[in-house]
Amino acid sequence: MTRVEFIFNVPDKLAKTVELCERAVAKGRQLTVLSQDDAMSHALQQQLWQQSATSFLPSSLPNDNVRLFSPIVLDTNGEHLVQDDVLINLQSEYPPFFSRFRYLVELVGEDETDKAAARVRFKFYRDRGYEIKKTDMAKP
Known about the structure:
CATH topology: Rossmann fold
Order of helices and strands: EHEHEEEEHE
Oligomer: single chain
Low-confidence stretches: none
Number of helices: 3
Radius of gyration: 14 Å
CATH architecture: 3-Layer(aba) Sandwich
Mean pLDDT: 92
Strand order of the largest sheet: 3-4-2-5-6-1-7
Helix content: 25-40%
CATH superfamily: DNA polymerase III subunit chi
Largest sheet: 7 strands, parallel
Number of strands: 7
Structural class: alpha/beta
Shape: globular
Number of domains: 1
Distance between the termini: 30 Å
């Protein structure tokens, strides 16, 4: 069964995504990041490529031929899934294909609109019996 984690009160979702990707890639994990749109995917790819002078986080977009070899795939619709390890959801809806992944991370921003959408997703997973880990970045 997919492990689900919600991270609440994330001040910068892209920065948190890069941090999560860096840790996961260092452990040999593969990730799919489901972003809201192509502009978000491109902005995230720029941050991944420029994370630090000593690290390089290779990523690809769904139509790139290298997506089969890239540890991070940035997607907007899930039509070109190539792995089933980690899914980071940056969209306001639950991904209908989430259950094929071992681990799902839901990032929730600080604004009320994002929190309201997250509550719906949280209830959706909980009502289907998924155990949910909760992390609140606002708490020290």
